[in-house]
Amino acid sequence: MVRKDGNIGAHFIDGALRGVFLGTIWGFAFVDSYEGPTKAISSFRSKLFQSSLKHAMVFGSFLSIYSGACCALDKVTPQTNSAAPEIMNAGLAGCLAGYTAAYVDTRSTRLSGRPALAAGLCTAAMTFVVKRRGLGE
């Protein structure tokens, strides 16, 4: 996960674009609160648009902040042969991005702590597995 070019802005924008794309697809695939065939088609289209927009915001904010934070943390941590700094960086970036994405979704600082911790632990664990298996080279 070491960024070779070190351009934080490029990684931030790349993460945002990928997140918006994935979130839009996710929103179309899993529409929130579908009422069934008894409601009007326009109501379903409205729900489809709202769902895709909400998920695009959440995925976009998560991936952009995660990519930018990982790049920034990779610049300030010393480069060693150990995978520990990269795992720590991924965990911290995951916590920050998870907190932001949860806050966008819930608008509550109290409810955003658990998703932040879960995102941090998951990103650190995935980075550990990738480094352990040598898939990240």
How would you explain this protein's 3D organization?
- The chain has 137 residues and is an all-alpha fold.
- Helix content is 74%, strand content 0%.
- It has 4 helices and no strands.
- The protein has helices at 8-29, 41-76, 84-106, 113-133.
- Helix 1 (8-29) packs antiparallel against helix 2 (41-76) and helix 2 (41-76) runs antiparallel to helix 3.
- The longest helix has 36 residues, at 41-76.
Concise synopsis of the structure shown:
The chain is mainly alpha-helical and 137 residues long. Helices cover 74% and strands 0% of the residues.
What secondary-structure arrangement, pairings included, does this model have?
Layout: H1 8-29, H2 41-76, H3 84-106, H4 113-133
Helix pairs in contact: 1-2, 2-3, 3-4
